[in-house]
């Protein structure tokens, strides 16, 4: 491959950039490396990554791919030699789960531990060590997470918990009625025509089953397929897509797939997190969160314009990932007079919202609105003091 086909914009010390470089080198992909100064960003970086303005940025044949994990998946799908992910969908799910876990629980806490002082440092050190203990359990007895060779994780990885005895194709989903993370999994299963047994849990009084099946996060959704336990809704969606090939949710083209994954992550981190803070906080914290949510929605509006669905003509992965915007966000708007989803400001999102909610699979699988209003009203009141104190933490 001609080196000009792949360009990587990086910063010498970034671990996110290095993981992309390692993947390219392991696969023997030639690339041109362009060093960036993240403290004095170049016009090129700002043009290629206007959303986050961060490295790494990979450009392949003029197409821009962002976010190191999204880039890793793109590299894996584009250059098949020396695979980094295992073949088996469950092992792939485990690799994605632990990668996400280490990023969210270890890297973030270790960084806070490095940069903070006093009780905040102590807390972060403790959390980082807790996370390392879980990772130690995962790698025990292996040369690499990828087994005998470097990969994203293991071919022989331990299950999150003991295997649950059940028929080989049986699917169970443990959920909570109002969780948008659970609904996106249900929608995916229904769109693909996969039968499953739904088990309602109480996240305020967790069942022994939930604690046993998801000892790491203790959260729903938890999906069990033929006794194998998969957690984290985006990891579950990828597993569903790889296991049941009918009615594909992700596009075929690796670049389009990368875009779907990028926007799903963006909406989760920038829209969902901020909208939740906007609902549950007060005063200037609320104002700031409202503004950030609207800024993020503007980017989503730009991404959607002119399309019926994010997935084109049919509901796909990104529609499911963002599905909560169509139904949960208006409820939050109503409870807290947030005025986030203004139809004049966001005409494309509004049209998409109507298209999405008209689909029978979606329409028939939504929590009752009145019950949601009461639930979120109470939750926002309960969480307001917690949000206020976390601001000063
Ligand atoms: N990132 C997770 C989020 C799951 C999540 O936060 N689930 C909530 C219900 S909406 C939960 O189980 N909360 C219980 C807890 O955090 O203790 C996913 O996508 O699956």
UniProtKB/TrEMBL annotation:
Q: Name one GO biological process term.
A: glutathione metabolic process
Protein origin, superkingdom: Eukaryota
**Pfam families referenced in this protein's UniProt entry, alphabetically:** GST_N
Query: Is Transferase included in the keywords of this UniProt record?
Result: yes
Which cellular component appears as one GO term in the record?
cytoplasm
Enzyme Commission number(s) from the entry:
2.5.1.18
Q: Which reaction does it catalyse?
A: RX + glutathione = an S-substituted glutathione + a halide anion + H(+)
**Annotated ranges, domain GST N-terminal:** 4-83, 169-248
List keywords of the entry alphabetically.
Transferase
Which residue range or ranges hold the GST C-terminal domain? 253-376
Q: Which GO terms describe its molecular function?
A: glutathione transferase activity
Give the family per the record. Belongs to the GST superfamily. HSP26 family.
Spell out the protein name for this chain: Probable glutathione S-transferase
